[in-house]
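Proteins fold reproducibly. Take a sample protein:
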Amino acid sequence: MRYLTLLGRGETLALWVGQMTSVMGDRLYAMAVLWLVLKLTGSTQLMAVVALGQTVPLVLVGLWGGGLVDHWDKFRGMVGIDLLRAVMVAALPIDYALGTLVPWHFLVVGIGLGSLEALFAPSMQASLPGVVDREDLQAVIGLMDMTTRLAQILGPGSAGLLLALVSEEQFFTLNAASFVVSAATLAWVGARLRRRGATPSGGAPRPRIRDWRGGFDAVRADRGLAIGIALRVACNAANTAFTLGAPLLVATRFHQGIAQYGLILAAYGAGSLVGNVLAGKAQFGSRVLTVFALSWGAMGLGLLVVAMAPVLWIALVATLWMGMFGSLQHVSIELTIARRMPPTALGKVYSFQRVAMAAATSLGLLAMATLLARIGVESTLAVAGAAEVTAAVLALVALQSSRLLHTPPPPASEQR
């Protein structure tokens, strides 16, 4: 009901529609990039390199981007970023039509998009307190998170219908158009807020790379949280097997096309939406790290089923299962951070986690591309699934041995 109330307000509705459109476009872009690289080259190594092109900048630019956005008008900055992204992505279908598209063009665009995303994401997160009153902040954060869950279904799930109307390379055109829609809504919301004097211009100290050590130190001082983030980092690296292996599995084992690949991604999105609803209603209490570790174990089991699935529908069910527990692990670790860290350390800890995950994803892409080339897609997915299950079990043992598994978080007054 709170979501519906927020959507009844002009600024919130415009922001939600713009971001929903943009994230759906991003899903189409991500799907089309990997599929076209595989189609043009047949190389899983090149797929990994292209994926790395968008991931590595999240680490490098992320080291200072979160602080940089405090120095500008966030809405104007996001409008500029969206327009730049639209121009970058729109170049790809033009390149394809001219017959000059080669894989390194995807890499260049990916590097640009990853760099801009490292600035856009903290700008969006930091802008939300100015859009709604304090009592609505948790609801609007949940509402914006819901755009990702829905887009995971609607974007890839619509691929089959869209392919009846446009060719797969035109998915890039749709993504470019979605950035324009996002820019228009952000410009409108920003103008409305400026008229109300609700968009402070920043003025924080200039960011420094060494400031990020504060997040590392805060995590290291909390053994339970350190174990949780280490598990998340390790499993994110392993889960890149699904990113690279899913299109290859659809093409080689099931002998299907991009529409069926879209169904795989949509199934994950549907599961994550269910998991989001469950996480919103669940009372984790003091067992939140237990939920987190068990969720990763469940995701690993799902990946094992995907690896062994003899037919597409079994892979779809297993992928839905993975998406559900993917959402649960995300909410549970974010809740752990919010509970255990003082307000003055939250930003540093979230930033440290984001950079660590992006670095792990980059390394995982390289490792999984090598495994795909050497042992094949089914074996690579099985190895990754087994690694996630093993990591989850080790984390549970470490938490239990440290008496952290069911320990209530310290009171807020003790955290400050």
